[in-house]
Amino acid sequence: MDRQALRDAVTRYNAEGVTGLFDRPKGRRPEWLSESEQATLAAVIFKGPKPEVDGVCTWTREALAIWISAKFGKTLHPGSLSRILRRMGMSRQKARPVHPKKDPKAQERFEKRGSAIR
Q1: Local structure of 29: helix, strand or coil
Q2: Residue 79: CB partners within 8 Å, gap ≥ 6?
Q3: C-alpha–C-alpha distance, residues 30 and 38, integer Å
Q4: Which distant-in-sequence residues (6+ apart) come within 8 Å of 49 by Cβ?
Q5: Cα three-residue angle 28-90-76, rounded to 5 degrees
Q6: What predicted TM-score, i.e. pTM, was given to this entire model?
Q7: Which of 12, 59, 68, 109 would disulfide-bridge 20, Cβ 3.0–4.6 Å?
Q8: Are 44 and 70 in contact (CB under 8 A)?
Q9: φ, ψ for residue 8 (rounded to 5)?
Q10: Is 8 left (phi over 0), alpha (psi -120 to 50) or beta?
Q11: Residue 59 burial (CB < 10 Å; 0-12/13-18/19+)?
């Protein structure tokens, strides 16, 4: 045991007794976004973007980082935002692309008969 560690232990024992010898919780850096900011972010994500207001049709990490910068005045790297979203219980999801002019009847015909048009 190091002399300084022993001295610290004796000092803590003299001041607090046996409970002073137990390890104390270590300090952590505070969250980058407060709880209210995280709740606002979650609400915005679940509501979805408005293309005419937000300028995007789907939320990406980059778009969310820009939104956070404009809304809260805090700059975040998209990778850091990814960790924050995971801690909030969210995961990356991507919708399958859908063509806006798709024809369900043509799709059904294709599935039944193949690609020959009749």
Answers
A1: coil
A2: 61
A3: 13
A4: 56, 57, 58, 59, 63
A5: 55
A6: 0.58
A7: 12
A8: no
A9: -60, -40
A10: alpha
A11: middle
Whether 114 has a pLDDT exceeding 60, the answer reads yes
Say which residues have a Cβ less than 8 Å from residue 72's Cβ, sequence separation at least 6: 33, 37
Tell the residue number behind the tokens 């002399």, with chain if given. 3
> Is it the case that residue 79 has pLDDT exceeding 70?
yes
What is the H or E stretch that residue 3 is in? helix 3-16
User: Is 78 a residue whose pLDDT tops 80?
Assistant: yes
Q: Mind listing the pLDDT tens digit for each residue in 28-59?
A: 888 889 999 999 999 999 998 888 888 888 88
CB 81 within 8 A of CB 68: yes
Q: At what angle do helices 61-72 and 78-87 cross, to 10 degrees?
A: 90
CB 68 within 8 A of CB 76: yes
Closest by Cα among 49, 43, 41 to 81? 41
Mean pLDDT of the chain: 87
